[in-house]
Amino acid sequence: GNSVTQMEGPVTLSEEAFLTINCTYTATGYPSLFWYVQYPGEGLQLLLKATKADDKGSNKGFEATYRKETTSFHLEKGSVQVSDSAVYFCALSGGGGADGLTFGKGTHLIIQP
Amino acid sequence: DAGVIQSPRHEVTEMGQEVTLRCKPISGHNSLFWYRQTMMRGLELLIYFNNNVPIDDSGMPEDRFSAKMPNASFSTLKIQPSEPRDSAVYFCASSVQQGGNQPQHFGDGTRLSIL
Hints:
The complex is a heterodimer.
Chain A: E1 3-6, E2 11-14, E3 19-21, E4 23-26, E5 31-38, E6 44-50, E7 56-59, E8 62-65, E9 75-77, E10 86-94, E11 102-103, E12 107-112
Parallel strand pairs in A: 2-12
Antiparallel strand pairs in A: 1-4, 3-9, 5-6, 5-10, 7-8, 8-9, 10-11, 10-12
Chain B: E1 5-7, E2 10-13, E3 19-24, E4 31-38, E5 42-50, E6 53-56, E7 65-71, E8 74-79, E9 88-95, E10 105-106, E11 110-114
């Protein structure tokens, strides 16, 4: 079945540092890939997505590229802010599995001023 | 636009009681999903519906759990009888249509505590 593996953290960075959160997946076929963000006490919000190989999703300075050869979808941001502190989830759907999302365990990101 | 609306936001009840969680999806969305989030297991899909019909309930943990979607604007997740290990945050999400490439929109969740 489908699975997603991501670094769990917590990841602590200083403001304006470069961010990378690794995500790799296992799926049959051609899944769609997503990054969601969860702020304390809230539901998940879609951050970005990519639906086919070599697509790059981007939003709010975050980027991730769908790499089929390495089955990866790493999240990056060039300069993080304190307001980026949250839990980030990598997820996939489709690709021979059900339409529901399969999530990684989540990465808790803490940005210090 | 109103997002996905869940109620209640918090529920505390005693073991053995029936619990009903409610969800109103975004108007026009045809797919609805129920997830459970715990520290140990992370986010897990419980069940999802397309056009009010249950498509995959393989994630429902036990017969104590049931879900219904009587119409396009309302769904319930029921636990009867509840147990302490059911304590978790339960999320409802909806998307425009069936298909893995459609983003899902999440409600703020129901935090359930079973004593």
